[in-house]
Specification:
Blueprint (H helix, E strand, L loop, with lengths): L3 H24 L4 H15 L3 H10 L35 H16 L3 E8 L2 E8 L3 H6 L2 E2 L5 H8 L3 E3 L10 H8 L5 E8 L5 E9 L8 H23 L1 H16 L1
Antiparallel strand pairs: 1-2, 1-6, 2-3, 4-5, 5-6
Helix pairs in contact: 1-2, 1-3, 2-9, 4-8, 8-9
Length: 257
């Protein structure tokens, strides 16, 4: 049986390897290593996660190899406002800073100090940030592909999901339940991060040391507002910063041919 560590390594590599193959085929690169170097260099130059870049290389229809631009006539938009997150003007374009601020905001609203951020990529949820959770938890939930978790249910339903008591909730399978309980969480709440078109781009989940009776309507409203704002920002980031990175990748690969 495949270990959790090997599984995580395999899933972490899968998207990048798929993107390497796309680049080799499109630009007639000499090797997969050349494709990886191209992805890595662009990732570092634009401060975009390698796996995010790879995900869009695979998912977005590519240009002809000799096309002058990948995204001609693409409009450039300013970063959306993020009310309540407390990000500075400089941080408004930083993926890491915005996700950290979003996690902090959700934990403040839900009155806990345990939580995590996941992003939807390659038809699964990938753990991006966390606080207050141990290694066993983060290894287990590094990649979520099935529906036996609150976060997966929230993504599927496109709505907030509260698990009042992890120990008795039938939403989890036995392994997921144990991974949550052993980290000290007895309740959880998952908030979808949605674009204006309703697409779930990620999730923020809070974890609680004691069973919950639920959240007040003002709390749920504040969470929904945060989920919409952060989802809108993530959509902007992928349609602006990440597409800038892809455009640079295309122009670099064209010159190298």
């Amino acid at each position: 049986m495949e270990s959790r560590e090997l599984r995580n390594r395999r899933l972490a590599r899968a998207g990048v390897e798929s993107a390497q193959q796309v680049l080799v085929d499109r630009y007639h690169l000499a090797s997969h290593a050349e494709g990886f170097e191209l992805l890595r260099d662009v990732s570092q130059r634009f401060n975009v996660k390698l796996h995010t870049l790879a995900d869009l290389v695979v998912r977005i229809a590519g240009p002809d190899a000799d096309a002058a631009q990948w995204f001609p006539r693409r409009p450039h938009m300013s970063a959306p406002v993020l009310p309540g997150l407390g990000v500075t003007a400089e941080e408004r374009t930083s993926h890491g800073a915005v996700l950290q601020a979003a996690l902090r905001r959700v934990l403040h609203i839900t009155e806990t100090d345990m939580g995590n951020v996941q992003l939807a990529e390659h038809r699964m949820l990938r753990l991006e940030k966390h606080t207050g959770l141990n290694r066993q938890f983060t290894d287990f939930f590094a990649f979520v592909q099935d529906a036996t978790t609150a976060c997966a249910q929230a993504a599927r339903r496109r709505q907030q999901v509260t698990v009042k008591d992890v120990a008795s909730a039938d939403i989890f399978d036995d392994d997921s339940r144990e991974a949550i309980l052993q980290t000290g969480s007895r309740a959880a709440h998952s908030l979808p991060l949605t674009s204006r078109a309703g697409r779930v781009i990620g999730l923020i989940s809070s974890h609680h040391a004691h069973p919950l009776s639920g959240f007040s309507q003002p709390q749920l409203t504040a969470l929904a507002s945060t989920g919409a704002a952060v989802g809108d920002w993530l959509h902007w980031h992928r349609r602006t910063v990440v597409l800038d990175a892809l455009e640079h990748l295309h122009s670099t690969a064209r010159v190298a041919r």
